Amino acid sequence: MGLGKLRLSPSILFVFLILQIFLTEYQMVKNPCHIERSFNPTYRKEGDLIIAAFLSLFVKVQLPVNKFFFESYPIWSYALPRSMFKQYHYFLALQYAVEEINKNPDLLPNTTLGYQLLNNFHLEKLAVESSLIWLSGRGPIIPNYSCDTQSNSVAVIGGMSATLSMAMATILKLYKVPQISYGSFDLLLNDKAQYPYIYQMGKEQSTLHLAFIQLMLHFDWTWIGLLLSDNPRGESFFNDLKEEMVRNDLCVTFTDRLPQNFRESKDLDLFFRIISSSSNGIFIYGDADSLHEFSTELFSYKLYGKLLITTSWDFSIDTNFEVFPTFHGTIVFSHTQMEIPGFTNFVRSLNTSVNPEDIFLKSFWESLFNCRFSKKSDVEIFYPLCSKDLSFRDSLYMNIDMALMELITNVYNAVYLVAHALHQMLHSEVKEASKLAKNLDLPWKLHHFLKSMNSVNIASDESCEDGTKPAAETYDILNYKFVPGKIETMVKVGEVQPLAQRFTFKEEDIDWPEDFNQTSTSRCNLKCGPGFKKTARERQPKCCYACTPCPEGTISNQTDAEECLQCPEDQYPNRGRDRCLPRTVTFLAYEEPLGMTLGYAAICFFLLTVLVLGIFVKHRDTPIVKANNRSLSYTLLVSLSLCFLCSLLFIGHPTTGTCLLRQTTFTVVFTVAVSSILAKTITVVLAFRATKPGSRLRRWLGSTASYSLIFTCTLIQMYLCGIWLGTSPRFLEMDVHSEPDSIIIQCNEGSLLIFYCVLGYMALLALASFTVAFLARNLPDTFNEAKFLTFSMLVFCSVWISFLPSYQSSKGKVIVALEVFAILTSSAGIFTCIFVPKCFVILLRSDQNTLGIFKKKAIS
Predict the structure, then answer these.
(1) Strand 49-55's sheet: what is its strand order?
(2) Could you tell me the domains of the chain?
(3) Would strands 281-285 and 307-310 be described as parallel, antiparallel, or unpaired?
(4) What is the distance between the alpha carbons of residues 244 and 241, in angstroms, rounded to a whole number?
(5) Looking only at Cα atoms, what is the longest distance across the chain?
(6) Which of 264, 309, 343 is nearest to 90 (CA)?
(7) From CA 238, how far away is CA 235, in angstroms rounded?
(8) Fewest CB atoms within 10 Å of the CB: 440, 532, 545, 626?
């Protein structure tokens, strides 16, 4: 039976496999360095001293498999060319820095630096595995066993994130290996008790929260959402940001912590909270690990109308192109980095012929250009062979340096940090590098020199040994743009120095998200415009308020005014209550139509009264003039003419003198007129009663009794006016409250009680005259003067009774006009009712103005 026909039972086959495994393990224990790995994922460039670089060159994601039956191998999904290109930049920065140092005769003279490159696939467990591979040298991973006969490795540069750095530190700190982290600064790694051998190249973002505040104040955003990584770094940032937001009256609509894994429904609800939020601006703060799942889940959710603001976290490293439009328009804060001279040209000039032994460069080249270096037929079917003329200039992803510059600079500075520390150590040890490399304590001793080095701008040798403070933190404001054709770029649109409060922003250079309203702001409600003030809402944050109109007489000339302001006394609010207008000084002037009309009426009535007085004087011997005491008629006409003239004191610009004279003159003159009417009325009654022979009433019919009555009544009124002037005189004032748009110059009446007493006394005289005249209206008077006196007093009383309520309800110059109108109307009423009928008889019916007619009517 041939061997090809030989069949082994399953039990025999199992025993055979066990023996083979046992023999292999025995050989490994006996001499593990003789066992070579089929694939050694490392690339090494020799030198006197070696720097190890643990980079995330390929990001691998393990797809789920059936863990219960193990029916298939784990399937790995490798990174896209775009992601690989970004990651490979970090190794290129390492390579470029090492070449620069080796060419520099003043730094590490007579010593060459080499490097060893390992890939941790951005996974913690593979980072630990890479650490063991580096410590073991060649062959399988055997803890505490090194296959390298020449241990010239001095330090490790690695840790794109804090989790990777901590995973590596679990192994490296056992051997006190210096570990320089090139990722963003993290508070956890700053704990020297737990991580004493980790040095961070990332700049501390101590004022990043102030930069966020500056952006909010620039756009006037008061209502934002906040997403934080669920770790101490995110919590510390939130505490600083919240304190500063309270100080600037800014509010957070929601605050959510981003978990590492979005697997539960409560985590997926986060996107619904973001979409339904009323805030248009969403601030995101965290590291790449905590935000990885968030960026990938955004593929299923569209954040309509939301603008994302984040840090230098490169969200496009581990996502696919379909997610990129979601991030279009995102504003990114990044530390201002120095430009590495010549680095861009170095990258663009690379090709596979420079380092043919670089396995990572070949893998990247094949992935970037979709070609293969292998000549296997099964590969050539799908991909062509790579051309030797290709370079990075032909890549579509050359315009992303801005997004990578921070970590690239950190790797570049990390190499120089180790180089400067080695330079100082070589001078202190006074040994050659070859001898120093054989010293197994070399990594331990390097810590002393690393601690004394300044990690800021170490490449340019800018130290702070003179005691000066380092430069203030400066952040570049970048705008992420993704254009059709799968091209992404970062454009610098501004710069901010939080401590110096310097903020520059070019809004014309920014691309907003497609569905983001560029004119809107992230606020809880619209701003309160001029003419309104903010009013707090019950049980609402301070940023959510109502807008209420300013009260009458106040204005607000700015948006979101806390309080409304009073206008100066010489100004008044406009209708919109957003500015003050100059008031117009107003009074009853002669120039305006009302004042001109009243003035002309007063003069006309005065002239007419003087004319009638002249007629009466000319016809003084006629019976109609002699009737009812001729001298009382003269007195009444003179007092009426003065009443018409005193109304002129109320028109024109008031002065202190006119204020003192106008009411006093008016009341005294009117008292004389009303007293004259009372005397004429009494004379009519006494003339009828004294017709009998021997009547004692004849002695009261003379002029003496009538003038005594007029003098007594007038004296009482003058006494009241004297009290008025002595106790509370009238004065000139400016009324700024009656009319909002005017300053009324008027006379203050002083004591209203005395004013009404003066008017009441005059009304009492008028009422007495009206009563007596009304009782004597049917007496057999030849010229029927009693009836005319009754009508005159009726007009007088009606005018002044109507004047009082109008006086109380009016303001400003209307009061003055009403009083002038009442004076003219009442005076004209007395004049018309008493003297017009007599003038009619004197001028037009002179045949009736004879003594014969008088006696004839008296007999009848």
Answers:
(1) 42-45, 113-119, 49-55, 153-158, 179-181, 198-200
(2) 41-204+399-460 (3.40.50.2300), 208-337+471-509 (3.40.50.2300), 532-582 (no CATH), 593-859 (1.20.1070.10)
(3) parallel
(4) 5
(5) 191
(6) 343
(7) 5
(8) 440
On the question of pLDDT at 468 being above 50, the answer is no
CB of 327 closer than 8 Å to CB of 480: yes
Among the listed residues 173, 193, 80, the one whose alpha carbon sits nearest the alpha carbon of residue 131: 173
Name the token pair of 719: 């006494």
pLDDT classification of 644: cutoffs 50, 70, 90: very high
Tokens coding 720 = 């009241």
Q: Which residue from 376, 368, 258 is spatially nearest to 313, judged by alpha carbons?
A: 258
CA distance 276 to 755: 71
Sequence-distant (6+) residues with CB within 8 A of 464 are 454, 456, 470
What are the Cα distances from residue 300, in Å, to 271, 272, 294, 361, 818?
Answer: 10, 12, 11, 34, 80
* DSSP codes joined into one string, 284-339: EE--HHHHHHHHHHGGG---TT-EEEE-S--TTSSS-GGGHHHHTT-EEEEE----
Angstrom distance (rounded) from CA 438 to CA 149: 9
What is the per-residue pLDDT across 473-508, written as a single tens digit (0 to 9) for each? Answer: 889 898 888 776 666 778 889 999 988 888 898 888
* Element at 406 (helix H, strand E): helix 401-429
Tokens 């400066």 correspond to what residue?
474
Q: Are 617 and 638 in contact (CB under 8 A)?
A: no
> Within the chain, how many helices (H) and strands (E) appear?
24, 25
Question: Strand, coil or helix: what is 517?
Answer: coil
- Residues in Cβ contact with 41 at an 8 Å cutoff, skipping those fewer than 6 apart: 118, 119, 130, 133
Nearest to 653 by CA among 710, 718, 586, 605: 586
Nearest residue to 549 (alpha-carbon basis) of 562, 572, 535, 533: 533
Q: Are 231 and 290 in contact (CB under 8 A)?
A: yes
| Chain position carrying tokens 């009680």 | 753
Are 393 and 85 contacting, i.e. CB atoms less than 8 angstroms apart?
Answer: no
Q: Is residue 135 within 8 Å of residue 178, measured between CB atoms?
A: no
3-class secondary structure, 212: helix
318: confidence class by pLDDT, cuts 50, 70, 90: very low
DSSP states of 66-116: -TTT--SPPEEEPPPHHHHHHHHHHHHHHHHHHHHHHH-TTSSTT--EEEE
523: buried, middle or exposed (CB in 10 Å: 19+, 13-18, 0-12)?
A: buried
From CA 659, how far away is CA 279, in angstroms rounded? Answer: 65
In eight-state DSSP terms, residue 580 is: E
Alpha-carbon distance 467 to 233, whole Å? 29
Residue predicted with more confidence, 11 or 293 = 293
Taking the C-alpha atoms of residue 319 and residue 98, their distance in angstroms, rounded to an integer, is 31
Look-up of token digits 């109380």? 808
Token readout for 417 is 């940090």
